Amino acid sequence: MIVLMLPQLACAQNANAAPPTASQDDNAQEHPYNGDDATRPLNLIQLRYTYKTAPGTTRSVATHTLTLRADRRIDLTPDWQLAFRTDLPALATNPITSDNPGGDFRYGMGDAEFQGALIHDFNSRWAAGFGAKLIAPTGTDSLASRKWQVMPGASFRVMLPEIGPDSYFVPLVRYDLSVAGDPSAKAPCFSRSMQWWVEC
Q1: Cβ neighbours of residue 140 under 8 Å, at least 6 residues apart?
Q2: Fewest CB within a 10 Å sphere: which of 33, 67, 110, 185?
Q3: What is the Cα–Cα distance from 8 to 99, expressed in whole angstroms?
Q4: Has residue 24 been placed in a domain?
Q5: Alpha helices per DSSP H over the chain
Q6: Which pLDDT tens digit goes with each residue over 154-166?
Q7: What pLDDT was estimated at residue 57?
Q8: Is residue 20 part of a domain?
Q9: How far, in Å, CA of 146 to CA of 140, rounded?
Q10: Residue numbers of the domain that contains 127
């Protein structure tokens, strides 16, 4: 976390960045970029909330997640960047289990996630990156996977200015591998995700 938040690196990055033109400023205000593109990381600290439901044996299970996220981008050259991300989630969920027959809400910390990637911009339209995510079993016992997981992955990005300002498509593929932890806990052996974002 300390490395991610060093102000000297942020100052160096801002000093090396070219000053935006007036048209770029106007475009950024109309279509603000939020940093969700894996190949265009930003220096951010966010507090993110998500809510999801999943089918259960007798009723659906609700999960509320509040995640503290820190992103750090380090420019190596104009075309190469290093990107780091740390996620620290807090969970509230209400599964019906043998330990929780009433389906009461359980609260605690989820597993911490750390990831790094090396990104290359080929030109203004195309970019690619590869890296790995580490999931550590740091969460509350009833809410955590109890597994160490490593997820190497790769992505590429194509900008789509024909559709609209700052429109892009980013497929992301990860391989999920459990490397240590509780041998009785189950974790997926392979996962794929496809991410895309289009603004018109």
Answers
A1: 91, 106, 107, 108, 109, 110
A2: 185
A3: 49
A4: no
A5: 7-16, 22-30
A6: 999 999 999 888 8
A7: 72
A8: no
A9: 9
A10: 7-14+30-197
